[in-house]
Amino acid sequence: MGASPAIVMILFVAVGCFMAYPEAVTAKHTGITRRYTFNVYKAEITRLCHTKSIVTVNGKFPGPRVITREGDHLVVKVVNHVPNNISIHWHGVRQLQSGWADGPSCITQCPIQTGHSYVYNFTITGQRGTLFWHAHISWLRETPYKEVPILFGEWFNADPEAVINQSLQTGGGPNVSDAYTFNGLPGPLYNCSAKDIYKLKVKPGKTYLLRLINAALNDELFFSIADHSLTMVEADAVYVKPFETNVLMITPGQTTNVLLKTKSKAPNATFLMLARPYATGMGTFDNTTVAGILEYETPSTSLKNRPLLKPGLPAINATNFVANFTSKFRSLATAKFPANVPQKVDKKFFFTVGLGTKPCPKNQTCQGPTNSTKFAASMNNISFALPRTALLQSHFFSQYSKRVYTTDFPAFPQIPFNYTGTPPNNTLVNNGTKLMVIPFNTSVEVVLQDTSILGAESHPLHLHGYNFYVVGQGFGNFDPKNDPPKFNLVDPVERNTVGVPSGGWVAIRFQADNPGVWLMHCHFDVHQSWGLGMAWIVLDGEFPNQKLPPPPSDLPMC
C-alpha cells in the first residue's frame, strides 16, 4: 500500500496555518478545488488584564487552518467587515501564474476596503509541509500519531497600528510588545496570565509532528522543550535532511516541522516549553519569555505533585549558535525531491541591507538617532516607498507604470564601503519606488550583505512568489573571489525566508520562472515599515503558460 497523500497546512491574527500534504506515492493526485470563505471581523479579547479589539477570521483567533493536498486548487473569498482596509498574503505559496493572489497591499493588489470582498484563487504546486497566511497591510497580522500547530506571536496591550504610526511620526523605534504567545496564549511567566497557558498533552511512546510558525512581528525566537529533543524534518514547506536539536531558532516568516518523540513511559514530571528572542540589534526589544507546558497523560498521578522542569536557552545574542544551527539545514536532494539549484547564473546581484536615517521634517524634533533625523531602512541605500497604486496592476497596464515606479533599482551598492567595519559618516538613505526587471527564466544569484550602519543586525529576508536555495553564508564582508568556490550547489536548503547573519552575508539562487511583480523584504515589520525592501519584475515568457494572466474582475480598487 502506498503512503497516504502528503498535506500543506496553511495557518492567521490575522494569522493562520496552511498544511499542504504531498501527492500520493502510488498515483499522482490530480487535485480538487477547495473553497473557503473568510469573514474578517473585530472582536474583544483579554490578555494580561487588558481588553482590546483584535482582528479575527470566522470568529477565531488565531484564524482557521486551511488543509490541502499538493496539486489542489484553492478558492478563498475574503470579506472585510472591519474599519481597516485589509489584504491576505499566502506566505510561501509559489503563486505560479497567480500573482494577483499573492496579497501584499500596493504590490500585487490594492487592499480590500470595508464592506468589500476579494477572491484569492491559486493552486498548490510542488510544495508540502507548513506555510501560513497573514494580513499584509501595516501591522495587522500576527503521518505521526498527532499533528500539533504551534503559532508564535506577540501581544501588544496597545493597538499595534497606533504603535507603528507613532514610530513613523516621531522617527524613533516603536514601543515593544508586552508578551510573546503560543497559539495566542502568553503563559504563566507574565503578570495576570496564570490561566492563559498553552498546554500540550501527550501520551508516552508516541511521535508528534509539531508545525511551528513564527508569526511574531519583530522578533526571531529560540524554542526548546525541557528534557526532550526535536528532529527537524521540514522548513518552509520543503523536506530537509533530518537532524536532532534541543534548541531551535526560527525567524519571523519561517515555518518548520519537527518530530517530538515522547518518552516510552510517562515520567513523574511536567515540562516547560519556552521561547524567547534572539536579538542582535542596538534597539530595544521585548526581552521576555513565553512559556507553555508539555504534560503526559496519566490516569493516576496528580499533576500538582510533579516537578516542573525548565529547558535551557542560548544567550539573547548567541550569533555563533544561530550560525551553527542554520548551517545544518540541507535539502533531501533525492530523485523524488531534487535540489534544482541553478548551476550557472545569468545575473548576479549584491544588495546591502540595514538601517539608516532620513531628515526630520522642518520645525519638528524627532526621536531617531539624533533629534534631527528619523530611523530608516534600505537595500542598496534605497528605502522602498509604497506606491498608491498596486505595482502588479501598473505593470500589467504598462501605460500607467511611469507614474508609479521606476526600473532603476541598483544591482550593486552605488557607493561601496567597508560594510561590516567602521560605518560611513553619512547615514542618509534615498527614497523611491525602484524595481529590478529580469527576463523570464533568468537564473539569479543575490548576495545579501548586512551593514554596520547604526549597528549590525540579523535580518529575516522573505521573497514572494519564489523559493530560493541558500548556497552560502558567512561573517564579515562577502569576498566575491574566495567565497563563491565554497558555495553548496549539491544539497543547499530551499526556503522562502532566510536570516541574513548579523555582521555577515548570505547568498541565494533561484530560477525566475514566475512572471509578475514580487516583493522581497525584511520580515521584521518595523524594518519593512522603514523601507527595507524592493521588488522584482519578472517579464512574461514566450509561451502561454509563461505569461501573467489578466487580473480577476473583483480585483480591489485603490
UniProtKB/TrEMBL annotation:
Keyword Phosphoprotein: no
Record's signal peptide: 1-27
Cofactor(s) needed for function: Cu cation
Entry-linked CDD domains: CuRO_1_LCC_plant, CuRO_2_LCC_plant, CuRO_3_LCC_plant
Entries under InterPro entries matching the protein: Cu-oxidase-like_N, Cu-oxidase_2nd, Cu-oxidase_C, Cu-oxidase_fam, Cu_oxidase_CS, Cu_oxidase_Cu_BS, Cupredoxin, CuRO_1_LCC
Cross-referenced PROSITE patterns: MULTICOPPER_OXIDASE1 (PS00079), MULTICOPPER_OXIDASE2 (PS00080)
Annotated cofactor note: Binds 4 Cu cations per monomer.
Catalytic activity: 4 hydroquinone + O2 = 4 benzosemiquinone + 2 H2O
Gene Ontology process terms (BP): lignin catabolic process
Gene Ontology molecular function: copper ion binding; hydroquinone:oxygen oxidoreductase activity
A Pfam short name: Cu-oxidase_2
Keywords on record: Apoplast, Copper, Glycoprotein, Lignin degradation, Metal-binding, Oxidoreductase, Repeat, Secreted, Signal
Compartmental location: Secreted, Extracellular space, Apoplast
Residue intervals of the Plastocyanin-like domain: 40-141, 147-297, 414-540
Keyword Secreted tagged: yes
One cellular component (GO) term of this entry: apoplast
Superkingdom of origin organism: Eukaryota
Its EC number(s): 1.10.3.2
UniProt similarity note: Belongs to the multicopper oxidase family.
PANTHER family in UniProt: LACCASE-2 (PTHR11709:SF256), MULTI-COPPER OXIDASE (PTHR11709)
Name under which the protein is recorded: Laccase
Lineage: Eukaryota, Viridiplantae, Streptophyta, Embryophyta, Tracheophyta
